[in-house]
Amino acid sequence: MVSLIETLIGKGFQLAIYDKHVSLARLFGANKEYIEREIPHISQLMRTRIDEVLESSEVIIVGNKAEEFREIEGRLRGDQRVIDLVRLFDKTSDGSYQGICW
Question: What's the CA gap between 30 and 6, in Å, rounded?
């Protein structure tokens, strides 16, 4: 996911990132040092709530199968698109949903 994030940043996209498993406040030791040294710009893009990402995004990229991501489907605006990298939803691609890498 870091490579994808770096690529999107390099292409000029504005990102907001949410992952409940990555909390900067809970990081310590080597993990915290790595983020602070190698990817501090990514840590600045982290959001603490999924709502913050949904409210500000045109495209939502799902990169893990956390159960809370299943709840976003009914909360999307008509202009938002989902790119699903992990086959979170058991459906085929349509205009607002695209599954890739599975």
Answer: 21
Q: Are 96 and 80 in contact (CB under 8 A)?
A: yes
Contact of 62 with 82, CB cutoff 8 Å: yes
Judge whether 96 and 82 are in contact, CB under 8 Å.
yes
Gap between the Cα atoms of 17 and 60, Å rounded: 10
Lowest-confidence pick of 15-24, 28-37, 66-75 = 28-37
Distance CA(90)–CA(19), nearest Å, equals 21
Q: CB of 17 within 8 A of CB of 42? A: yes
Our measurement of the distance from residue 25's CA atom to the centroid of its chain's CA atoms, rounded to an integer in Å, reads 18
